[in-house]
Specification:
CATH superfamily: Rhodanese-like domain
Order of helices and strands: EEHEHEEHEHEE
Helix content: 25-40%
Number of strands: 8
Number of helices: 4
Structural class: alpha/beta
CATH architecture: 3-Layer(aba) Sandwich
CATH topology: Oxidized Rhodanese, domain 1
Largest sheet: 6 strands, mixed
Distance between the termini: 24 Å
CATH class: Alpha Beta
Strand order of the largest sheet: 1-2-6-5-3-4
Strand content: 25-35%
Amino acid sequence: MKTETVNGMPLETWTPQEVRAALQAGQIVLIDVRTPQEYMFEHIEGALLMPMSFFTPATLPGQESKRIVLHCGSGMRSDKVARRALEAGLPMIAHMEGGFGAWKAAGLPYTGTDMATGAPKPVTP
């Protein structure tokens, strides 16, 4: 995990492996900031959807017990959204380095779409 200071607060950048371990342990809330279409086509199991275009820091889940980790396709949008959340005064924000592309490149499981039926299907590379 990398950490930088933004407006006096830490912004953490997590690897896909760190995100997976924390998600499995129930330690984080993972929020996907991609579009609904991107999420519908493929997503990380357990991730909530809050598209960047509709992002409002005040509507994020409470952070009393779990850190919020944001992710997108490449890490660019989630970095921008994380910085907006920090500017709004939310202290426990992180984002996933490399986004969903890095998750897939690391061979981690996700939910994809069965192209023959259009139904969701687990993908375990």
